[in-house]
Specification:
alpha/beta, Rossmann fold, about 20% strand, binds dicarbonimidic diamide
């Protein structure tokens, strides 16, 4: 089996069982006026993940390996947004309120779109999700077996919220998971570092981590 040089040890994968999942690289999290900024975060911490995520997309597309994008966005009537989620926070803007990028975290609004640098290709799956984890209330759990995916590479934002939650969900469902360390980011750099360490601790209790360059090298050798 091919391998990716990773922590805590090399990540072995079947050449046709590997998929990429890019979590929530949306304007609402990365751009001014969106959900992330409404919560009081410094969005500048996320920009550095865009270029590495773009390289990952190029590597998977070049090998014709499956790519899945997720978007955290609610139905316009907010029927899939639990009151606890909508009411959380003490800022003036909440989910569903009108902001500079349209209604915050609502499907179809400008802020819910994926940033243009990472725009999905027409044949790539885009999963809208109402929760932090991408398996909750979505079709992802049915789609992965249909695509023959057993091993997943993760990228996206934020590391310790939606990326980590989804990676843990996938791990519990039997998928082998690798986090592309430089293609993920957090509003809190210390949380990113801690999340990566806790995922790979205990000999990979949740999975593996590797730089994009190591993933590019492995895919380039297929
Ligand atoms: C958050 C996410 N942080 N995509 N969502 O609310 O991580």
């Amino acid at each position: 089996m091919p391998t990716i040089a990773a922590r805590p040890y090399d990540f072995a994968f079947p050449a046709r069982g590997l998929g990429l999942i890019v979590i929530d690289m949306q304007r609402d999290f990365l751009e001014p006026g969106g959900f992330g900024e409404a919560l009081g975060n410094d969005i500048g911490h996320l920009a550095g993940a865009i270029a590495p995520a773009r390289r990952l997309l190029a590597a998977f597309r070049a090998r014709k390996l499956p790519v899945i994008h997720t978007r955290e966005a609610h139905l316009p009537d907010l029927s899939d947004c639990p009151p606890a989620k909508r009411q959380r926070g003490r800022g003036s803007l909440h989910i569903g309120d009108a902001g500079p990028l349209g209604r915050i975290l609502v499907d179809g609004e400008p802020g819910s779109a994926i940033v243009p640098e990472l725009a999905p290709l027409p044949d790539e799956l885009v999963i809208r999700k109402p929760g932090k984890g991408a398996f909750h209330a979505t079709s992802l759990g049915r789609i992965l077996p249909q695509l023959g995916i057993s091993h997943l590479v993760f990228a996206g934002v934020t590391t310790e919220v939606c990326v980590q939650t989804t990676m843990r969900e996938a791990n519990d469902r039997g998928y082998e998971c690798l986090l592309a360390e430089d293609a993920t980011a957090s509003y809190f750099p210390a949380f990113k570092l801690a999340a990566v360490e806790m995922l790979v601790a205990q000999d990979g209790i949740v999975g593996w981590a590797a730089p994009v360059e190591a993933i590019e090298t492995a895919l380039g050798a297929l």
